[in-house]
Amino acid sequence: APPPPALAPPSPDGGPPDRGPRSDRAPKIYTRTGDAGFSSTFTGERRPKGDRIFEALGATDELSSAIGLAGEFSSEKGHTFVEQLHKVQCMLQDVGSNIATPLSSAREAHLKRTSFSEKPVLELEQWIDSYSEQLPPLRAFILPVGGKSSAALHFSRAVCRRAERCVVPLVQAGEADPNVAKYLNRLSDYLFVLARYAAMKEGKEEKIYVKPEP
């Protein structure tokens, strides 16, 4: 099947992704085109579903879902950073579009629609610096706890690290933009800092790793 609509680039006029001739009937969710174990990249290549491109797409999708859950917990606590998390989820759609467009088969039209700049990376760095300045120094390893918001953000960080590990080989092979890997790297740092910040704002104690007695 082609990449899911959420991962496909928008149409040139800013509307939903191009999906061929319009119809008054709602499209079916299932297409049956992937039943043989193959799927399509945005450039039209048919590759096995176990291809590392689809592994990276899947990890990115999981990451966005994990962040969505963290956002829901954080919203219940009134955290003001929830809008940032929503923006991150939108950026992950662009990450997916870039991953789904292997540079080895991309035409100029594909590249224009799925390029990924360094600007989002720099924005993450600004957010990281802003929250870090408000946190106490980190002097020991902490466990991924600290309330539901914090724990969900820590979980998102772990998923982000896996997504980064899936993307790096694509970048090294020249199939994805290096800025995509940079974004995921900074995003994991952002989620870590944000998890600590959420725990602090909620008055939750950070639990420190203690080596068990032999």
From TrEMBL:
Span list, region Disordered: 1-49
Q: Name one Pfam family in it.
A: Cob_adeno_trans
Annotated Cobalamin adenosyltransferase-like domain residues: 29-198
Question: A GO term (biological process) for this protein?
Answer: cobalamin metabolic process
Reaction equations catalysed: cob(I)alamin-[corrinoid adenosyltransferase] + ATP = apo-[corrinoid adenosyltransferase] + adenosylcob(III)alamin + triphosphate
Which key words are in the record?
ATP-binding, Nucleotide-binding, Transferase
Q: Does the keyword ATP-binding apply?
A: yes
Belongs to which family? Answer: Belongs to the Cob(I)alamin adenosyltransferase family.
Oligomer and partners: Homotrimer.
Official protein name in the record = Corrinoid adenosyltransferase MMAB
Q: Which organism is it from?
A: Nipponia nippon (Crested ibis)
Give the organism's phylogenetic lineage. Eukaryota, Metazoa, Chordata, Craniata, Vertebrata
